[in-house]
Amino acid sequence: MEVATGASDEFEASSEDGRASDRLLHELLKKLASRPAVELAAIEKAYRFAARYHGDQRRESGEPYILHPLRTALILADMNMDRVCLQTALLHDVVEDTAATLEEISREFGEEVARCVDAVTKLGKLQFYSPEERQAENVRKMLLAMAHDVRVIIVKLADRLHNMRTLGFLPPETQKRIARETLDIYAPIAHRLGMGAMRGELEDLAFAYLEPEAYAEIRQAIESRRQASEEFLEQIRRHIMQVLAREGIPARVEGRIKRVYSVYQKLKRQRIGIEQVYDLMAVRVITDSVKNCYAALGLIHQEWPPIPGRIKDFIAIQRPNLYQSLHTSVMGPGGQPFEVQIRTEEMHRVAEEGIAAHWKYKEGGKSDDKGEAQRIAWLRHLLDWVQEMRDSRDFLSTLKVDLYPEEVYTFTPRGKVIVLPRDATPIDFAYAIHTEVGHACVGAKVNGRIVPLRYTLRNGDVVEILTQPGHLPS
């Protein structure tokens, strides 16, 4: 009797699992409904192949494993990625975690998909001497693969994003390791490739596991202001729309509240309170031409006084990841500061999606452009030294230095990495270690020699802080 009940329960669970995966497959195909039937059939074929091989495998959460590749594919479908990306997402774990082979994938889905699956596959079957070496080797393989097909990193980022969304089911030590890797490697790769939306979510998710108290405190501070902030932004949004319409400038205007990790970085870097974060609230003006971007900037400055030193022209001088926008912070009604970002539709697309924008599904195939060429040039620059690096620790530290162009990586004498804003000094380094060290700081050595406390630190500097007990900062 008990056996029969158990078998019945097992059957019901299996039926429910099947319904869950069918629902997600239906959702995926619905998102892609405008594509040719032959393409939808190819994507469904990849799902059936993966489902057959993953079989009864389960994740730590207890849910069927097949739901993970399906949700990874859904993230990419929301980005409107092409067929190869979506098939790779559905198949990305079958070689590592099942009996499926690359030869089978190549035979069933073509060489292009097989090559991408191979590149995304983690090297779990090889033995390295330490977790750090394993991580370095995985990143090395990923970067090598990107030289041939950058869709590899787009799939890998989507895979990592879904893993971060479901990290709560893993042991705390594993959570911290994966979150640290996400913040150190994956989020900056997304940033360097211009994928702003992906980078933002990865950073917030990782931050929540690495600094739970700081995350909770900042999130609570943002949430306590949310209703008032949203009402304020709506008032500003309508006002800007009226001003631009009066001058015949076509535009749409959106409001946004700054992300948690982004606020944390600013508080830490500038040592200020949340009330002093001028861009906590921002409006984004998206118009039709560069000329109208500058016209809109002038009109906004006529409505509200700009905050000195807060105007940045990333249209004339674009960022290394090809981000373009005009930024200004103004003093709004009631003395409430807010940021305004002004850009064209094309600039907005690049800011949100970065290199992924060039691998979207298009009826006529892919289009080439200067932006993609520049990002690929950056990847090839990484590859030059990937080929030469032998020591995994060297590889990871060099990778981090290159991925964070706006930050300086320094080291304590014991080799701990201290990340500081560009142009930081030994005093900033001392306070980054501990407030008490900062207070007691009387001098500093950089790379073994005494330097002034105003010395500008560079990537790779080894910094030793000289302290004097009882010393008070002057």
List the helices and strands and how they pair.
Layout: H1 2-31, H2 37-54, H3 67-78, H4 83-91, H5 94-97, H6 102-109, H7 111-120, H8 131-148, H9 151-165, H10 172-192, H11 196-210, H12 212-246, E1 251-257, H13 260-270, E2 281-287, H14 290-303, E3 312-313, E4 326-331, E5 337-344, H15 345-353, H16 370-386, H17 392-403, E6 407-411, E7 417-421, H18 426-433, H19 435-440, E8 441-446, E9 449-451, E10 463-467
Parallel strand pairs: 2-5
Antiparallel strand pairs: 1-2, 3-4, 4-5, 6-7, 8-9, 8-10
Helix pairs in contact: 1-3, 2-4, 3-4, 3-9, 4-7, 4-9, 6-7, 7-8, 7-9, 8-16, 8-17, 9-11, 10-11, 11-12, 12-13
Structure report:
Helix content is 57%, strand content 11%. It has 474 residues and is of the alpha+beta class. It has three domains: 25-210, Hypothetical protein af1432; 213-355, Beta Polymerase, domain 2 (2-Layer Sandwich), CATH 3.30.460; 407-467, Beta-grasp domain (Ubiquitin-like (UB roll)), CATH 3.10.20.30. The strands form three sheets. A five-stranded mixed sheet has the order 1-2-5-4-3. α12 crosses α13.
CATH superfamily of the largest domain: Hypothetical protein af1432
Largest beta sheet: strand ordering? 1-2-5-4-3
Question: Can you identify the CATH class of the largest domain?
Answer: Mainly Alpha
* CATH topology-level fold name of the largest domain: Hypothetical protein af1432
The end-to-end span amounts to 81 Å
> What's the multimeric state?
single chain
Can you count the beta strands? 10
Shape: globular
Contiguous low-pLDDT stretches (5 residues minimum) are 1-12, 123-129
N-to-C SSE series? HHHHHHHHHHHHEHEHEEEHHHEEHHEEE
Helix-residue proportion: 55-70%
Q: Which structural category fits the helices and strands?
A: alpha+beta
Estimated share of beta-strand residues:
5-15%
The CATH architecture of the largest domain is Orthogonal Bundle
Largest sheet: 5 strands, mixed
**Number of domain modules:** 3
Q: What is the overall number of helices?
A: 19
What's the rounded overall pLDDT mean? Answer: 83
Integer-rounded radius of gyration: 25 Å
